[in-house]
Specification:
Number of strands: 10
Number of helices: 11
Radius of gyration: 21 Å
Strand content: 15-25%
Number of domains: 3
CATH superfamily of the largest domain: Butyryl-CoA Dehydrogenase, subunit A, domain 3
Mean pLDDT: 95
Order of helices and strands: HHHHHHEEEEEEEEHEEHHHH
CATH class of the largest domain: Mainly Alpha
Distance between the termini: 26 Å
Helix content: 40-55%
């Protein structure tokens, strides 16, 4: 029997998250305040951490809640509804920790993930570089083995939470290798000599999320901090993206719903030609399209998350959810600005922020164009299996 309804426990978690987001983000307008100031949302993170709304897929063995990917997507939608910038900051620990979970590296999980459950602290994921974003195999950050240590040199770019993190999950290639081969993964502590963050970026949107470079100059990494060795790092990075893309689709789900709600509320209050603008077919159609986009994106996100939990995730599942959701979110938020008209183009109303925030969904963790390449290649593989 095909069932799309969430469980009673999941519905209760959603309601708890929805109330908390309303109380700590929407009502006090922290989303608008942080968008203007560019401050990191430490205060919001602490409240969400205290409520158990972060580190959602951390296993119970390290003190985490041990929730499923479906749980994560359902709760994540509510936080994303409040603010995509805040939610990117809140959810970054999950991305940093996922390679450790996938690799089943128990020692590093206990050493580095457990402290994130004991107090509100941060970790970051370091894969992209100045000349290697979606093309992970083009990375140039290198390591060489020296005795019982690895010496790391290079630079990472577009790293969420890099400036506030205690440790970074870093991908690097063995010196002398090229392409997909030779890539390994390490846990690097931010306090180690030669490791530093640099160049905090001012962005179009998601300004409550800090993005920076990571720089490594002869950083000594103990052998035990290697997550996977050469030949396995590229696959681990790709598997991590497959696992994280349902979360991005949840981000699209949340922001589409927010755009729908803001538009519907405004359209019932704003009048032109003697009637509320919701009664004009052009406006009503745009809001109806938002609802279609919301329902479709939510189902795609939950379907991909359910595939994760069943253990049969293919790249197509998560890529479809992210690509469709990101594009739909951009359209929905653009239409929201259009519905608000001149008011929508000002910072007085949240919809212009929603539009700016949504754009990044089409870019980070694999652009919408890369998702389509993933989908096409997976379809070709399936054809070959027939």
């Amino acid at each position: 029997m095909f069932e799309t309804r969430l469980t009673e426990d999941q519905e209760m978690m959603i309601q708890s998250a929805r109330k908390l987001v309303r109380d700590v983000i929407i009502t006090p307008k922290r989303d608008m305040q942080l968008d203007k100031s560019g401050e990191f949302p430490h205060d919001v993170y602490k409240k969400l951490w205290e409520a158990g709304m972060v580190n959602l897929e951390f296993p119970e063995s390290v003190g985490g809640p041990g929730l499923s990917c479906v749980d994560h997507v359902a709760i994540g939608e509510e936080i994303h509804y409040g603010c995509l910038g805040i939610s990117t900051s809140v959810m970054a620990n999950n991305l940093a920790a996922m390679p450790l979970i996938i690799a089943k590296h128990e020692a590093l999980m206990k050493k580095y993930m457990a402290p994130l459950c004991e107090e509100p602290r941060y970790a970051a994921y370091g894969c992209s570089e100045p000349d290697a974003g979606s093309d992970v195999a083009a990375m140039s950050t290198k390591f060489v083995k020296k005795g019982d240590k690895y010496i790391l040199n290079g630079q990472k770019r577009w790293i969420s939470n890099g400036d506030v993190a205690d440790w970074w999950l870093v991908f690097a290639r063995e010196d002398g290798t090229k392409g997909h081969k030779g890539i390994a993964a390490f846990v690097v502590e931010a306090k180690w000599p030669g490791a530093r963050w640099d160049a905090l970026v001012h962005k179009l949107g998601q300004r409550a999320s800090h993005t920076c470079d990571l720089v490594f100059e002869d950083v000594e990494v103990p052998a035990e901090n290697m997550v996977v060795g050469p030949e396995h790092g590229f696959k681990l990075a790709m598997s991590t993206f497959d696992r994280s893309r349902p979360w991005i689709a949840a981000g699209a789900t949340g922001i589409i719903r927010r755009a729908r709600d803001e538009s519907l509320r405004y359209a019932t209050q704003r009048k032109t030609f003697g009637t509320a603008i919701i009664n004009h077919q052009a406006v009503a159609t745009m809001i109806a399209d938002m609802e279609i986009a919301y329902q479709a994106t939510r189902l795609l996100a939950l379907s991909a998350a359910a595939a994760v939990d069943r253990g049969d995730l293919r790249g197509t599942h998560s890529a479809c959810a992210k690509a469709y959701g990101a594009d739909a979110a951009m359209q929905a938020t653009t239409d929201a600005v259009q519905i608000f008209g001149g008011y929508g183009y000002t910072s007085e109303f949240v919809v212009e922020k929603l539009m700016r925030d949504a754009k990044l969904l089409q870019i980070y963790e694999g652009t919408s164009q890369i998702q389509r390449m993933v989908i096409a290649r997976d379809l070709l593989r399936q054809l070959g299996e027939q």
